[in-house]
Amino acid sequence: MIVDLFIPCFIDQFYPDVAMNMIKVLERVGCGVNYNHEQTCCGQPAFNAGYWDHCREVGEKFVKEFQNDRYIVSPSASCPGFVKHNYDEMFANSVLHNQFRQVQKNMFEFSDFLVNVLKITDLGARLDGTAVFHDSCSGLREYGIHREPRVLLSKVRGLELREMKDSDVCCGFGGQFSVRHESVAVGMAEQKLKNAEETGAEYIISTDMSCLMHLQGFIAKQQKPVKIMHLADVLASGWE
Questions:
Q1: 14 domain residue, yes or no
Q2: What residues make up the domain containing 146?
Q3: Quick check: 189 and 207 in contact, CB under 8 A?
Q4: Would you say 219 and 228 are in contact if contact means Cβ atoms under 8 Å apart?
């Protein structure tokens, strides 16, 4: 099977190792990968800021770049969730109607693709320590994943996964929210970290680097020992 990759803007710019680790995992389970170097953005930042015309322009480019019948896999729930649920408002009954429906059908978040498409849960990974999983708002409420990353983490050798209080509560990032409402966003990150620390966790793991980026900023400022890890980084760890 050959799959197309969609790498979100912030992962491409700030956390390319996450994308590379997702590729390693996909290749380990027998997938070939195709990366279109012309890809840019799905349009979500413009949409959320109210610039729908600009979002539509970016979205048209996105749709045209994935015109085939291959799965599209992304190391984030945010972008696939946006494409699946908000492209209707831009392209329904347009000349791109059939094309965007095809993209919506083919697009998957990484853990969803592994567990529900490939039916694979054990990647042979190893990570010694204790961890909590943070459910991103976009992953849980928009895209709809909860079980999938936990199933994958339960198979990681040496890792004890604990549930923290309010794992489904926002970390405070929320895109522009963390910039426009900095004090509130910082308070939410503080509470999230407190909940993680109460479990004795050494790692906070998530499917979305946007949340982890926000938490990492607070952790670094407070000089806390807790580490953040994307699910792909965990699944690519400790291979023999």
A1: yes
A2: 126-235
A3: no
A4: yes
pTM over 0.90: yes
d(CA 19, CA 88): 27
Q: Are 66 and 35 in contact (CB under 8 A)?
A: no
Residue 3 burial (CB count, 10 A): 19
Q: What is the pLDDT of residues 23-38, one digit of tens each?
A: 999 999 999 999 999 9
Position 220 in a domain: yes
Within a domain: 240: no
Q: Which residues contact 232 (CB under 8 A, 6 or more apart)?
A: 18, 19, 21, 22, 25, 75, 110
> Is the same domain home to 139 and 100?
no
Q: In what order do the strands lie in the sheet with 203-206?
A: 157-162, 126-133, 203-206, 227-230
DSSP string spanning the chain?
-EEEE---HHHHHH-HHHHHHHHHHHHHTT-EEE--TT----SHHHHHTT-HHHHHHHHHHHHHHT-SSS-EEES-SHHHHHHHHHHHHHHTTSTTHHHHHHHHHHEEEHHHIIIIIS-------EEEEEEEE---HIIIIII--SHHHHHHHHTSEEEEEEPPTTTTS--S-TTTHHHHTHHHHHHHHHHHHHHHHHTT-SEEEES-HHHHHHHHHHHHHHT---EEEEHHHHHTSS--
Residue 240: predicted pLDDT: 67
- What does the block give as tokens for 9? 């803007």
Torsion of CA 102, 105, 107, 113, to 10 degrees: -140
Q: Report the percentage of the chain scoring pLDDT > 70.
A: 98
